[in-house]
Design goal:
274 residues; alpha+beta; Immunoglobulin-like
């Protein structure tokens, strides 16, 4: 059985943040699923102690079989829990194959290579989602469908199928806060709670990774986890993942890992018709 347990390599290192640029050694591309076209890419730079770095960094990109190197100038810094900094940028890849990210601080340089594919196995921007009958409080007690210790009931009012009939923007987040390996699932739900009351015409849906999470928690055995059907339909292999869906049921943005509420709000407002 395929498992949804994935530990970001950077979670080993990202214990605290620092702007000390000495002993700079590593660059990590957190976003794994990259394909032809526009991609939201998350990068982080670390010193030898695993501290994240932000000051005086310049980022570049090149296709490994090309001589041209392009500087990445449009980027923003995002705060990740518990005390980490990452860089968010948008990259339009025009060719499949291996690409190299480069970060420089003065004469110090680090590189990271990624594989850009023709198509991602995970639903992507432009894809329409299926009207799936995901768990909701119309059929279950809330404790049966979430491991969140302080759940927002509104996140469980709709199945995906029901939400699509409302013709409203939707955020769907796949996360298992009670069993999260990366430590960002609960914080991700808190970011969504921040914006849940700001928009009358917004639906937010939280879906657990495992349908039998109680059994997994009771036995302390992740290997017995059974995936929710929607997890397989979306093609997810890591956690958390969040998707922004427009009123027509089309994916407008997708976010691997943690994403701050301010970024979610910016993207949401870009598709709202006032």
């Amino acid at each position: 059985m395929r498992k949804i347990i994935f530990i970001f390599l950077i979670s080993i290192f990202l214990n605290c943040s620092s702007d000390i640029q000495k002993n700079f050694i590593s660059l990590f591309v957190i976003t794994e699923e990259l394909e032809i076209g526009d991609n939201r890419v998350v990068l982080t730079a670390l010193d030898e102690n695993g501290n994240t770095l932000t000051n005086d960094l310049r980022f570049f990109l090149r296709k490994l079989d090309r001589n041209e190197t392009i500087e990445i100038k449009n980027k923003s810094i995002s705060s990740w829990p518990p005390n980490r900094n990452v860089f968010i940028t948008k990259i339009n890849f025009d060719e499949v194959g291996y690409w190299e990210f480069i970060v420089r601080n003065g004469k110090v340089e680090a590189k990271a290579t990624v594989n850009v594919k023709q198509d991602s196995k995970i639903l992507n921007v432009g894809d329409f989602i299926e009207p799936l009958n995901t768990p909701s409080i119309g059929e279950y007690n809330i404790s049966e469908i979430t491991t969140d210790i302080n759940p927002n009931k509104d996140f469980y009012k709709h199945s995906i199928a029901e939400a699509l009939t409302e013709k409203k923007p939707i955020f769907i987040t796949f996360a298992t806060p009670g069993l999260c390996v990366t430590g960002t699932c609960s914080p991700q739900l808190e970011e969504l709670k921040k914006i849940s009351n700001d928009y009358n015409d917004l639906i937010i849906i939280h879906i657990e990774i495992w349908k039998n999470f109680k059994e997994v928690m009771d036995k302390g055995d992740l290997s017995i986890g059974k995936l929710n059907d929607s997890v397989e339909k979306f093609g997810i292999k890591t956690e958390p993942w969040t998707f922004l869906i427009n009123t027509e049921g089309k994916i407008k943005n997708r976010y691997q890992g943690f994403v701050e509420s301010k970024e979610l709000k910016t993207d949401l407002e870009s598709i709202i018709e006032y």
